[in-house]
Amino acid sequence: MTDHPSTDVAIVGYGPVGSALAILLAQQGHTVTVLERWPEPYPMPRAVHFDDEVARILQACGIGGSLDDISEPADVYEWRNAAGTPLVRFGSVGMGRGGWPSSSMFNQPALEARLGSRAGELPGITVRRGMEAVEITQDDDGVTILARGRDGAAADVRCRYAVGCDGANSTVRQLLEIPSTDLGFFYDWLIVDVVLNEPRVYDPINVQVCDPARPTTVVSGGPGRRRWEFMRLPTESLDDLNDIDAAWRLLAAWDVTPDNATLERHAVYTFSARNADQWRRGRVLLAGDAAHLMPPFAGQGMCSGIRDAANLSWKLDTVLAGRSDAAVLDSYTHERLPHARAVIDLSIELGKIICVPDPAEAAARDEIMSAGVTDHRTSIPSLPPLAGPLLPASDPVAGHVFPQGIIAVDGERRRFDDVHGAGWRLVTVDADPIDLDPELGQWFSGESGEVVAIGTHADVEGTYATWFAEHGCTWALQRPDFHVHGVASDAEGARSLLADVRHRLTHRTTVDQTQGEMTR
Ligand SMILES: Cc1cc2nc3c(=O)[nH]c(=O)nc-3n(C[C@H](O)[C@H](O)[C@H](O)COP(=O)(O)OP(=O)(O)OC[C@H]3O[C@@H](n4cnc5c(N)ncnc54)[C@H](O)[C@@H]3O)c2cc1C
Questions:
Q1: What is the pTM of this model?
Q2: 3-state secondary structure of 39
Q3: What is the C-alpha to C-alpha distance for residues 263 and 251, in angstroms, rounded to an integer?
Q4: Which parts of the chain register pLDDT below 50?
């Protein structure tokens, strides 16, 4: 096949990850065709939580203005034993590093609808619903995807790159014969989304009931909604649980009945944990649940997929524009796979504490955990920084998420990204202006880079001054996915950061697997 690709990127699957990726690519001027198997959006209950970093990526997708309408902050996630005694209190009050609440509760179909509307505003995106990808072939110039409509009609989509965002049972992953590592965690849970007919205050907002008689999750499902999740007991069959009467019976213990509530949706899911061992094969990549699957106890499955989209979109952009070699795309797997794997491991560890139906085992767990509980909130262990051949291993801050603060512009307080957008940002608070040699400056502008001197007065909450002081530096180079490339203490160091990125992006890189460092 050597015909001219009809679209820059084809995305298989129009869930939250496919939508976010399509938007981020189209915003950078690329054409995107999305193939989605179902004619209508998926209506069943799934994600209810995203974190501040993911909110920031959604802001970059252009839906920051509506996030407050479809989400509510959650400052506490309390785990209790059967007697109601707290075992641990996770959470934090106020804004996270990403400039949004550390935890937000939402309704997945509502979020997908917002992403869908945003995608509809971007002329570069074509969504072909009711089209199932069934075959993929690739050659030196591009990828051809054969898709079938529900009436059996077939269509070819020719693209330069393709991304499988097609969920847990990914067809793309299977067609590429990419093996997965299964981490052997399987529990069935009944998930129920409820709208209460009368307002009720839940304090704390999110609770995990570690009762061996019925491990249960009781959390916000976004504004106006509540979510209950009930674990299947070893004595029950799937059919016993996957039933609307079973849902009402279990909800009755929480004073939720057909008289005071509407049951919006219910479904049984088998929570499992696995990751695809490779996320790129030639011109085809995987993202979201197609690449990794985890139990939902850390509320991070979709979050991980949205992080994939942020990481991959700028790398595809620079490769599609011819500014970088395709080898840059290997860094996507190097950076994202270990990160997702750490989040899967964390989710499994949380699940091992929760999914305990044995009373003796639960009692032993309670004894250990309740000894350490205080009124203070504990943080869920922080997610690891990114590492890999695009990031300087010698810089201790490289790969960490750079903060988003509130800055004053013309007397108005605004989030930094709403003013300066997402992209390469060489940021300082109060350093002297920096001169870039014309060649380096031209390269930086070509990558949509911008030097931003915030100014002490504009750093109204001191977010940046505090961060720079904490890290002993005055300059930070932020990547388009909001991670730090590196930091510097003076103009010379700042210029070196840019030269370093340019080198890493413009020279064909290969990775020495034993060193984890880049060789050229
Ligand atoms: C009960 C539950 C609770 C959860 N809670 C959270 C939470 O609080 N926070 C969180 O971050 N995550 C949570 N998750 C995980 C989250 O829902 C998923 O990670 C997220 O939906 C994955 O998004 P995705 O776009 O990768 O895949 P999906 O949403 O599965 O979308 C994949 C799309 O691909 C389409 N598709 C599949 N095959 C093809 C094909 N061959 N051709 C065309 N289209 C195809 C599908 O129809 C689908 O629309 C939860 C999940 C569950 C089940």
A1: 0.95
A2: coil
A3: 10
A4: 1-2, 510-520
